[in-house]
Amino acid sequence: MSSLSRFTEGIIGSEDTWVAAMGPGVAGKGLIVTEEQCALSSQVAATIMELLGLDSQALNPEMAPPLSEMLD
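^ that's the sequence the OP posted. Answer follows.
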């Protein structure tokens, strides 16, 4: 029996992606809850790039915008 066969409905919570950011230039905000709980993986990538001082739009003008809640 496969260890995954017991998850016939999938793994609860696996559809969620959690992001934590800490370090110089990142304000401590605790848990951020937004009205819209859905974020795109390209938004996570754009946010990380922004935190690193890189321009995601220069890399890919079609990339989704960064998560502004993490950048304020």
